[in-house]
Write a sequence for this structure.
């Protein structure tokens, strides 16, 4: 009997141990299976979030960045148009002709002399009047001046230097035609007289459709014109490009209608009623004498205080281009920055994904939930 009770006791103890061991294994196994499921869900959420972020980064880079690039291209076109406009403006009709460019600081003067300037009657001068080294300008009024009177000032002194340089330049140019007939029609060229030149009736200067055509007259001693004689320009010829270099003095007869710039080594005398409708009367070393005359400086030569010509406009265009180039470089840098930003966003998204994958499943799951 005792033996039977002992066997029953052993059997009961063995059954209890086996049942307890089985329960302890089942609990942790169930918990582990829950963690694996959470890890799967966390990974799916993380991947979805990373994809959404990468998509957002691409949209930012392709949308906003591209619009900025397009705007930059439009600005480039505008800048190019601006350059074209500048070039057009630089070659416009307001630019000085060859005469004004050659005269430089003297271009704005209608009358210039060294010793004296005297006037009788209602002369009308449109342009500046300059005198140096003399000090006497008389006859205004009754004469009228639409311009500035410069006597021994900086503008007059500079004009004298530029005028002498222009005289030397004209005198040194090679001659195309010797002793032409001034009472005829002439085409562009350099015409020379060994001594005096006389205009008796009418001289016609034919520009042949070229507004830049030059007419240069080199006269060894004197230039004289008869009463009622005239100089006429046709076919695009410009009075600013008609230059008379006179070795001693010039005298315009009564009611002469003259055109062009006279640069006389000594003096210029304009008799009653004579005019230079587009031109200048400039005496390097002596006087200019006026008597009820009309002198109008060519439109190309305005302002006696500054140099006229081709330097300033070109320099401004180059600076503008340099600035445009600098702007283009800055835009290229901005484009590179946009690209770098795009790459940076993509890489960041990938890093987050890697971090999520390398972390614990529970953390990945909470990260997805946070997003």
């Amino acid at each position: 009997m005792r033996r039977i009770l002992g066997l029953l006791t052993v059997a009961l103890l063995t059954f209890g141990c086996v049942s307890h061991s089985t329960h302890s294994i089942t609990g942790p196994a169930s918990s582990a299976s829950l963690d694996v499921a959470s890890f799967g869900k966390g990974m799916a959420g993380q991947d979805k979030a990373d994809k959404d972020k990468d998509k957002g980064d691409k949209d930012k880079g392709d949308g906003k960045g591209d619009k900025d690039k397009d705007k930059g291209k439009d600005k480039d076109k505008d800048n190019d148009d601006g350059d074209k406009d500048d070039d057009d403006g630089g070659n416009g009709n307001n630019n000085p002709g060859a005469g004004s460019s050659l005269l430089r600081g003297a271009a704005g003067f209608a009358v210039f002399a060294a010793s004296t300037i005297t006037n009788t009657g209602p002369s009308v001068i449109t342009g500046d009047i300059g005198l140096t080294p003399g000090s006497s300008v008389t006859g205004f009024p009754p004469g009228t001046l639409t311009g500035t009177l410069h006597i021994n000032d900086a503008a007059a002194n500079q004009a004298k230097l530029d005028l002498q340089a222009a005289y030397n330049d004209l005198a040194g140019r090679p001659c195309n035609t010797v002793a032409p007939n001034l009472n005829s029609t002439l085409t562009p060229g350099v015409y020379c007289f060994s001594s005096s030149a006389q205009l008796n009736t009418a001289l016609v200067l034919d520009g042949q459709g070229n507004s830049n055509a030059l007419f240069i007259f080199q006269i060894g001693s004197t230039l004289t014109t008869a009463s009622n004689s005239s100089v006429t320009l046709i076919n695009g010829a410009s009075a600013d490009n008609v230059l008379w270099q006179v070795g001693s003095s010039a005298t315009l007869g009564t009611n002469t209608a003259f055109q062009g710039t006279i640069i006389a080594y000594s003096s210029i005398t304009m008799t009653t009623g004579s005019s230079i409708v587009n031109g200048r009367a400039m005496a390097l070393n002596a006087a200019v004498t006026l008597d009820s005359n009309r002198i109008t400086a060519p439109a190309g030569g305005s302002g006696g205080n500054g140099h006229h010509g081709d330097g300033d406009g070109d320099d401004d265009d180059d600076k503008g281009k340099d600035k445009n180039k600098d702007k283009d470089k800055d835009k290229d840098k901005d484009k590179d920055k946009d690209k770098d930003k795009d790459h940076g966003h993509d890489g960041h998204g990938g890093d987050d994904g890697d971090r999520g994958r390398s972390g614990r499943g529970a953390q990945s799951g909470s990260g997805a939930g946070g997003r």
